[in-house]
Amino acid sequence: MRIVKSKRDLRALVSSWKADKEEIGVVMTMGALHEGHLSLVDAAKADNDRVIATIFINPKQFDNKTDLDTYPVDTDADLRKLEDAGVDLVYLPQVDEIYPKGYSTTVAVSAMQDCLCGATRPGHMDGVTTVVSKLLIQTAPDRAYFGQKDFQQFLLIQRVAGDLDLEVDVIGVPTVREDDNLALSSRNRRLSEEQRDIAPTLYKVENTIAYLIRQGEAVDHVLEWGRKVILDSGFERIDYLEIRSEEDLELLGDFTDRDDLLNGRVFVAAWLGNTRLIDNYPISR
What we know:
The active site is at 37 (proton donor). The chain is built from twelve helices and nine strands. By secondary structure, it is an alpha/beta fold. It folds into two domains: 2-173, HUPs (Rossmann fold), CATH 3.40.50.620; 186-282, Pantoate-beta-alanine ligase, C-terminal domain (Pantoate--beta-alanine Ligase, Chain: A,domain 2, 2-Layer Sandwich). A hairpin with a 2-residue loop joins β8 (264-272) and β9. α7 (124-139) crosses α8 (151-163) and α10 packs antiparallel against α11 (219-233). The longest helix is centred in the middle third of the chain and has 16 residues, at 124-139. The radius of gyration is 19 Å and the shape is globular. The mean pLDDT is 96.
C-alpha cells in the first residue's frame, strides 16, 4: 500500500494506472475508521482494479469548533486497517494541500440543502460538497463510494457529480450496524456506557415508524409518538424526525400520495450529551 501526501504524487500514480486501463474506486474518509468505512472499501474492491482511500479531516464541514477539536484521530491504526483491507493507495493530505493560501471557492448545491443536516448545521453541507469535489478531481476515480447513513450527503454528491459533468459513478453503500442495530459512526466512541445503551433507540423508533406507516397509520401521529419515545429514553433534544423522499428529500406526510410515501425514508438526528447521532431507514424495507 502506497501513502502519498501531495497532489503531484497522487496524480502520478493515478495516471500510471489509467495508462494501463485500470479502473479506480475511491473511498473518502476523515479517519477514525470502523467497519462501515471498510464496507465501502470492500464494495470498491469488488468493482475496480485499484482502490484509493483518502483520510482528511475537513475543517470546512464543522459548524462547531469543539466538534472539530475533539474529533478522534488515530492515523496509524487507520492505515493498518486500510492495508489489511487491501487498499492500494492512501491519500493523506494536509490542510494546505486541499486549501492553499488564498483559497476562496465553495461548491454549493442549491437543491436539497434547506432540510435535515443542511438546515441544522449551517455551512456543513457546503463544506462537504466542496471537499468532495476537490478530492474527486484530484483522485480522478471511475467510481466513488459513500455510506447511506449520511443519505443527504450521498444525494448531494450525486448531484454535484451530475451537475459538474464529473466522469464518476457515485455509489451508495448500505449502513453497517452493531449487533443492536446502532449505526456505526466515528462519534459512537464518545458515548458513555449509559449513553451507548440508549443510542439504539433511534433505530427502534425509525424501524417502528416505517412499520406503522406500511400498516396505514397517520404520519403526524407516528412521528409525534417517535419524538416522545426518543426524548423519554434519555436523548436531550431532537434536531429532526421526518419522512422524506429518497430522490430529492421532499418532505412527505399525510398529504402525500401513498406510493410516494412508501418509497420514502425516515430521517432522524438527536443529541446524547454532546454527541449528535444521525440515522435513516427506508419505509418500504
